[in-house]
Write a structure and sequence with these properties.
alpha+beta; 10 helices; Helix Hairpins; Heat Shock Protein 90; 5-stranded mixed beta sheet
């Protein structure tokens, strides 16, 4: 299981499928709710139309037995007087719930329209009782069924209706009814009507919710079948698309594994022809491999050159010691000491380069380049100093090594004098070392900073050194956030400028 979901392809497919599944679930629930609400509202509108039609007939003094809405083909209809008595109901109505009353057998309490006013008067109650019944009826309606299609002002008790007037408010509710042994769910609408001779009546009419139930069931069935198929389709497409997108990554991984196994840094990973993140990853990987190859090759050359440079003084020293062992009188003590010192200096240079290559950061201390220049120039013949105070941050020992290497190089190539100057240029301190020698050709001004490089092939090692002084000087300058460049001096010789940020 961990291996299955340990790949980006599997996680992307699972994530996309879960997101789509949640979105489909939320969307489906919203669609079903909206469909149910719309169809329920449509049934309520139909029921309200039937209730108001019956109310209009009652306002027109139509007898109960002649009401058109009470036929067997219509939905369930009830007419209730202000006392709560069922005075008229639909034919074949056997059972009902969700309306003002659950009675199904009418019990007329008021005379027909042909009765005289004196006969109909006893059936009416006084105005105070009617007001109380209206308030009770409103309370029952508020507790049993919610009001709809009303404003906050309409939610208060409706004002008394004039004879022949139908109430503007409609109360909606949901329930069930059985007609002719057929039980179904209905949406009921109740309206009030003030008649001329029968008092305040409430008409409740129902419209079937079968269409709503059928539509919701159909939509739910479609969703239960279609949504899983859609989620499966999304999962399959995501699996295929991510597989195609990650195919170059597999090629990069395989090539990197082969490079690691073969240790052949000349090989490169394949770069896709796209311009996406994977292509940029491949290009960056190849750039890293190129830099690594250069670094390894440089390290190999360094080791080879160091071995070659160490071989000469060691061989010379060994020869002198062997001669001295066989013929003590022939011992060249000065030559042995000179080879030993040279070997010591070379070992120190190699150690410093190794530390610099390892990323050793200089000590954060303040160093006055002017004072440092005067100290290094002291005791050296032919060296002049013209320096203004300029403090930089770094290692005093390493900066002294840079200046010493530049002065040694200048003295080696100068005819007579070497000049040292220190000045400020903006936020930089500039230390310049110039000589009056032959100078450095423009084509060689960068090559001289490479390790073990000597421009004069015929020059002896004793005079020219190992070719590490300028390489060390530039590496130290870079580690201190500065630069070291070579140019032409005004006198025609070489000019080396060390630029470092001011402390």
């Amino acid at each position: 299981m961990n291996r299955l979901f340990g790949s980006v392809r599997s996680r992307a497919t699972l994530g996309a499928t879960l997101v789509v599944a949640v979105a489909l679930f939320v969307t489906g629930a919203a669609v079903l709710q909206a469909l149910r609400s719309n169809l329920t509202a449509e049934a309520g509108t139909q029921a309200e139309g039937t209730a108001r039609a019956v109310a209009s007939e009652l306002a027109a003094r139509t007898p109960y037995d002649q009401l058109s809405g009470l036929g067997s083909k219509s939905g369930p209809v009830q007419v209730v007087d202000e006392d709560g008595n069922l005075v008229a109901a639909s034919e074949d109505l056997q059972r009902i719930s969700g309306t003002v009353t659950d009675r199904v057998e009418p019990r007329p309490s008021s005379p027909s329209p042909s009765a005289s006013p004196s006969q109909s008067a006893p059936a009416r109650e006084d105005d105070e009782d009617e007001d109380e019944d209206d308030e009770d009826e409103d309370d029952d309606e508020d507790t049993e069924t919610p009001r709809s299609q009303s404003t906050p002002e309409d939610e208060e008790s409706e004002p008394s209706l004039a004879p022949g007037e139908t109430g503007r408010q409609t109360t909606f509710s949901s329930g069930a009814a059985t007609m002719d042994d057929d039980t179904a769910d209905y949406r009921f609408a109740a309206v009030d009507v003030q008649t001329h001779d029968r008092g305040l009546l409430t008409v409740s009419a129902g419209a079937p919710l079968a269409a709503e139930h059928s539509a919701v069931r159909t939509a739910l069935t479609v969703m239960l079948i279609g949504f899983p198929l859609l989620a499966a389709l999304v999962a399959g497409m995501t699996w295929v698309v991510t597989g195609r997108a990650l195919r170059p990554v597999a090629g990069i991984r395989e090539e990197m594994a082969a490079i690691t196994a073969s240790e052949d840094l000349k090989r490169r990973v394949p770069e896709p022809g796209t311009h996406d993140e994977i292509a940029r990853l491949a290009r960056t990987t190849n750039e890293t491999l190129a830099a690594l190859e250069t670094s390894v090759e440089r390290q190999r050359r360094f080791v080879a050159d160091a071995s070659h440079e160490l071989r000469s003084p060691i061989a010379s020293l060994r020869t002198q010691l062997e001669v001295a062992a066989a013929h003590p009188e022939l011992l060249d003590l000065d030559g042995a000491v000179e080879d030993t010192v040279r070997l010591q200096h070379l070992a120190a240079d190699l150690l410093l380069l190794a530390r610099l290559d390892a990323g050793e950061r200089p000590v954060d201390a303040r160093v006055d380049l002017a004072a440092l220049a005067r100290e290094e120039a002291a005791g050296r013949t032919g060296v002049t100093v013209d320096a203004e105070s300029a403090e930089v941050a770094g290692s005093r020992g390493q900066l002294a090594r840079v200046l010493g290497n530049l002065l040694d190089n200048g003295r080696r190539h100068a005819r007579e004098t070497v000049s040292v100057s220190v000045r400020r240029e903006g936020d930089r301190a500039v230390l310049a070392v110039a000589d009056d020698g032959d100078g450095v050709a423009e084509a060689d001004r960068e090559r001289i900073f490479e390790r073990f490089v000597r421009l004069d092939a015929a020059r002896s090692r004793d005079d020219g050194g190992a070719g590490l002084g300028l390489a060390i000087a530039r590496d130290v300058a870079v580690r201190h956030g500065g630069t070291l460049t070579a140019g032409a001096a005004p006198s025609g010789g070489a000019l080396f400028e060390l630029r470092l940020p001011l402390a």
